[in-house]
Design a protein that fits this description.
The protein has helices at residues 3-17, 21-28, 32-48, 83-90; strands at 54-56, 65-69, 75-79. With 93 residues, the chain is an alpha+beta fold. The chain folds into 2 domains: 3-49; 56-92, no CATH class. This is Transposase.
C-alpha cells in the first residue's frame, strides 16, 4: 500500500469513527494539518470521479429494495419498484 492509499484509508477510517479530526489524529499519531490536507485531497478525488453514487441491490433479493450510498457516507435504504422515485432520491445529492 502506497502513502496515498494509506492516508486515504485513514480518512475513510476517520469518517467511520465518529471522532473529531483532532481526536482521531491524537489517537493515530498524525499531525492535524497533514490529516486536513488528506481530507481535502479525498474530497477532490471524489469530485473528480464524476460524482457517481453507488446503488446496491443484492443479487439474491427478489424484492425491490435498494441501497443508495452517497459519497459523504450517508446510506439511504429504499423499498420501491418505482424507478423514477428512486432516480429522484439519487439526484438529491
Amino acid at each position: 500500500m502506497n502513502k496515498n492509499e494509506f492516508m486515504l484509508s485513514r480518512v475513510e477510517s476517520w469518517k467511520q469513527s465518529g471522532l473529531s479530526q483532532q481526536a482521531y489524529c491524537d489517537q493515530a499519531g498524525i499531525k492535524l494539518g497533514t490529516f486536513s490536507y488528506w481530507i481535502r485531497k479525498s474530497k477532490n478525488e471524489e469530485a473528480q470521479s464524476g460524482g457517481f453514487i453507488a446503488l446496491k441491490k443484492p443479487v439474491f433479493a427478489l424484492e425491490n429494495k435498494y441501497e443508495i450510498v452517497y459519497p459523504n457516507g450517508v446510506v439511504l435504504r429504499v423499498d420501491t419498484d418505482n424507478l423514477s422515485e428512486l432516480s429522484a432520491l439519487v439526484n438529491l445529492y
